[in-house]
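Fold in tokens:
===
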Amino acid sequence: LKATFDTAHNTKILFAYHKVRFFNDSLQGICDSLAFITKDSVLNLYQNPVLWSGKNQLSADTIRLFTVNKEVSKLMMYNTAFIISRDSLQNFNQVKGKLMTAFFKDNKINRIDVDGSAESLYYVRQDDHSLIGVNKAISSSMVIYLDDRQKVKKITWVQKPTNVLYPEKELPSDEKRLRDFKWIETGRPLNKSDIF
């Protein structure tokens, strides 16, 4: 951990490295290193960063967290951006793209914009939780809306998407994971003491 002060720009910069872990009730994360710049209130996470918000796992090559009044307002995920949530013991809802921007409301993600090579694999369920099928879609971009429980309530695909709803038994097992899928079973800080 290292802190510096730039007197010319009246800015404090905090650096943390290696094997960084942090915990907040609404957001937890790990990465190799991070930098926090007070002037713009942006937290930059580098080298295999992974964040958890509720049941969602977020990962990318680099992640930037933007804060307002000490609360996360949005985060941007660059290159191989991935959001995964477990649907059942073996199945996962997945979204992937080159750039993802997640917007927060009341410390919860409420919208995600996916730009560039957007892909999704989502288990579609009725109100009684019975499975309708598995939706697989590819588009240049998409917008995902989440409800208060952090579950997907609507997906909008942009510019001529390829969108197929498969009965679960007809989707081959090797197509149940998008390329570069990685579910992190361990490492998530579950409380403040886990970061030490």
